[in-house]
């Protein structure tokens, strides 16, 4: 069985995309994304598998 890596992405107001962090489980990555969104930033956050192309 291969290990999954999940990436938390952020897109800023100019459309630039950045990796925020990587986590071993989707649940951990979703938690980080939710924490970031709860801070009230205007940026968009989403989670994707590390092997997937970055798209919200």
Q: What percent strand?
A: 25-35%
β-strand number: 3
Number of helices: 1
Please compute the radius of gyration using only Cα atoms.
11 Å
Note the overall shape.
flat
- The H/E string reads EEHE
pLDDT < 50 runs, ≥5 residues: none
Which sequence of strands runs across the widest sheet?
Answer: 2-1-3
Look at the structure and give the mean pLDDT.
88
* Termini separation: 27 Å
Largest sheet entry = 3 strands, antiparallel
Going by helix content, strand content and strand pairing, the class is: alpha+beta
The helix content, as a percent range, equals: 10-25%
Structure description:
The chain has 56 residues and is an alpha+beta fold. It has one helix and three strands; from the N terminus they run ββαβ. The chain has one helix at residues 26-38, and strands spanning 6-11, 17-23, 44-49. The protein has a three-stranded antiparallel β-sheet with strand order 2-1-3, with helices on one face. It is flat and about 35 Å long.
Task: Compile the SSE list and pairings.
Blueprint: E1 6-11, E2 17-23, H1 26-38, E3 44-49
Antiparallel strand pairs: 1-2, 1-3
What does this entry show, briefly?
The chain is an alpha+beta fold and 56 residues long.
Could you list some keywords that capture this structure?
single chain, about 55 residues, 3-stranded antiparallel beta sheet, 1 helix, about 25% helix, flat
